[in-house]
Amino acid sequence: MASFAAVPKVLAVSSGGGHWAELLRLRPAWEGADVVYVVTQASYRCDLTRGGKGTRYVRGFYTVPDANKDQKLRLLAMAIKMAVLVLLVRPDVVVSTGAAPGYVAIRFGKWLGARTVWVDSIANADEMSLAGRLAKPHADLWMSQWPDLSERAGAVYAGAVM
Fold it and tell me: Using one digit for the tens of pLDDT, what is the confidence trace for 17-28?
């Protein structure tokens, strides 16, 4: 009798701008998986319909409020919405290119037993981002896109996506 492996569920999370662009460049890594995207801007939904690898497997697209450490109420609202999304999706893997929404998703995903991957932004050439440093103890794979920074910080370097 044939055995069928379940299709993995990936929760792909980022803030806007370059974080989102970098996340989109990672799509070939999860081709064939069911992918739910979470980002801070609803207008980014159109980026998923422009073709490219992995687009036919998009299972969901959600937004969360953008927030940072100086916006306590927005940060709380984002964390609550992210917790609900992680509970609804029950991902096998959480992947993030940053910033705060990705960190929060990795924390909640880890609590549910998901594998977690942090890819720090290419913009952080001198040091890992604050969210990246916070994510380190909770990420199964913690990466930088700079070889020198990877060596100094103890992150994995496997190339740059930008």
Answer: 999 999 999 999
